[in-house]
Design a protein that fits this description.
alpha+beta, Glutaredoxin, two-stranded parallel ribbon, two-stranded antiparallel sheet, elongated, AhpC/TSA family protein, AhpC/TSA, oxidoreductase activity, Thioredoxin-like_sf
Length: 121
């Protein structure tokens, strides 16, 4: 976080959770960045990043008291594909990364390099 800030960046997370759920997650995990609520995956859908969970996963989540309708406030059982964007101050997307495997995240060094290239321009 310090390096991102030093490079002129700001981290913002976007979640399909209801605002109270997003706030609770941010508070519980002591996050030092903003977590915005994208109820209904409106923003994620505009980027083409929404998928529907298969029935067997829905049953498993329900059995573990983690049913998406309770958390996200709709019956869609949809989630966004994890994605990372670096957006310039003018709104241009200068780096985009997404992977359906939520364990495959963009290396923070790549994000820092993208931020540093923006400040060098």
């Amino acid at each position: 976080m310090q390096q991102i800030s030093a490079a002129g960046g700001r981290l913002i997370a976007i979640s399909p959770q209801l605002p109270d759920q997003s706030f609770s997650t941010a508070e519980k995990n002591e996050l030092s960045f903003s977590v915005l609520s994208d109820v209904g995956n409106v923003v994620a859908r505009s980027f083409g990043l929404v998928f529907s969970l298969p029935l067997e996963l829905r049953a498993a989540l329900t059995a573990n008291n983690k049913a998406l309708p309770d958390i996200n406030g709709d019956e869609s059982w949809e989630l966004p594909v994890p994605a990372t964007f670096v957006v310039a101050s003018g709104g241009a997307v200068t780096l985009a990364h997404f992977d359906v495997d939520y364990r495959q995240r963009l290396d923070p060094g790549t994000i820092l390099d993208a931020l540093k290239s923006l400040t060098a321009q």
